Amino acid sequence: MIESILYGFQVAFTPENLFFAFIGVLAGTIIGMLPGLGPISAIAIMIPLSYGMSPASALILMAGVYYGAVFGGSTSSILLNAPGISGTVATAFDGYPMAKQGKAGKALAIAAISSFAGGTISVVALMLVAPYMAKLAITFGPTEYFALMLLGLTAISSLSEGSTNKALISATLGLIIATVGIDQQTGTQRFTFGNPGLLEGIDFLIIALGLFALSEVCQLIISRNENTLKGKSAVGSLRLEKQELKEMAGPIGRHSVLGFILGVLPGAGATIASFLSYISEKRLSKDPSSFGKGNIKGLAAPETSNNAATSGAFVPLLTLGIPGSGTTAVLLGALLVVGVQPGPLMLQDHPDVFWGVIASMYIGNLFLLVLNLPLIPVLAKILYIPKQLLIALIIVFCLIGVYAVSFNTFHLYLLVGFGVLGYLLKMYKFPAPPFILAFILGGMMEQSFRQAMTISNGSYGVFFQSNITIGLLVVSFLSLVLPTILGLTRRGKATESQDLKKEA
Asked: DUF112 domain spans which residues (predicted)?
């Protein structure tokens, strides 16, 4: 193992591979900052550029774009509330409030350090346990995935900003939207109303940019007061105090592991990892009410997890030849183009590609940290832009981002519609995060459930044949019931103390 890792660094430290790693993470960072582009289109564009390159160099370049985009996607989430990619949606929950409080520099520094730590720790884990984690990924079937998605949905109450009922209503809307389009199993049209623009469903990017970026634009337009941050307070200090570093240490340690494990599971990925990390950190917190208002842990947890998940996604890709997401599917195609067949024999047939790419990810994370920390004061100057110009820029970025994905003008109308919906949710204090989480998990949960039912000929007993499934279902039940029981217990104690005071 040690000889293989040293060989990987020998491959990664060649001048040409260092250059490709740097270009990849630089391009990925820029792409991640721009809402709508995403790593998939960037990697697809770079496939023709890889002709004539060695397989190791080609994959080092494209892998750099992938994790660089996740690293850079936090910038627009924090500064504009416009997630650059889907994996950084949860970053906006506490990152954007910090920027509004004049702590944009500190928020970007926390995101950069957390991303570096999560990416580095997960690369070390990737080096040590890649073959073993591949075996774990194989054990997950439809029932395990259904139980995992259900566990995520039962945590919706943790994303509520007060009323749990409003959070459940918001989640229900997300589940409804997730069913729009052609049913993959029967080919039936669902809730398309005869509109061909809805046959493929509604893209996640439309919903994310509408509910977060455009809803913020609506709020800025309707509230006519000038609230653009100006002066030094707009950026704030980049320096992190010892207490703040201590607060970050726990989430970084926990969610590097959680993000890596979720990244290994095909279909989970950075988006689900970031949401589950945010939810779990909020539940562990002694002051959950501070989340969504600029909590350091609420920013560090998803940023650590989404970067850790990108490294974990390479485990099934390289060891099994199974892409876990759209991005890794494009990477799989790129590997085949350069003549490499991912799978169990890759370690024997192409050790330079396998270990070289893993070692380059460690170097790439160092490049990202060196690139991003000095740029924080420059990036944070976005907050100096006058409100009127900032509104126009956000609208243009959102429209271009959505149109560039599909070249469909109907999607622009959908974007505006979700922007209005996001503003109404804010006005009546319905939380948007449960909507997003339910939309992400709803389709995957439905597909896993129907696959399990097909395999078992309609028998629900299939969900009790796997110890992993049973364990996840038990945890889901407890996560749904325990908060209610604890809430009733606290109310009972409060009532008793009030009665004792009255008697006294």
From this structure: 18-437
